[in-house]
Amino acid sequence: MDRQALLRAIKSAAYLEGDFVTRAGNKTSYYIDKYLFETDPSILGPLADFLVPLLPPLDSFDRLAAPELGAVSIAAVLSVRCNKPFVIVKKQTKDYGTQRLIEGRFSPGDRMVIIEDILTTGGAALRALDVLRQQGVSVSHIVGVINREEGAFDNIVAQNVVPSALFSKTDLQSC
Description:
With 175 residues, the protein is α/β, with parallel strands linked by helices. It has a single domain, classed as Rossmann fold (3-Layer(aba) Sandwich). The protein has helices at 3-14, 34-38, 41-51, 72-82, 123-134, 152-157, 169-174; strands at residues 15-21, 27-32, 63-67, 86-89, 102-103, 111-119, 138-147, 162-168.
């Protein structure tokens, strides 16, 4: 599958028009139902193949990180593709089990790349960044699938992290 075919597949599977509210609370006339493409193996495999080149050099980081829940399937497939373990950054601790905010093996001093699905303002990725930094982890890049072009890149750069995305809102709406 080439890049344009992947974009068309994502749009066909997950691009909805109507009246919606984003996670950031903004009204929008379109919505990308990420679970509709993130759970489809015919999209997920090629998606990982196109995301790998957006990662920094593999020897420059130790692990991938994914905010719960949306980016987890993407991080899992990328983990297999680039042979890097990943961690899941949870939204909140549970009142049972380990009660950790980060699931998976890591150590303070690890270098990570955050994987995200949809970047709107960057809120979920930046929250994950904060949690990881509090644990002594350094994050160099946040790599998304789609940049909605609503401030995420500026917000990420303000945290001294490099943002990138495979596709943009412009790409999605013009295909």
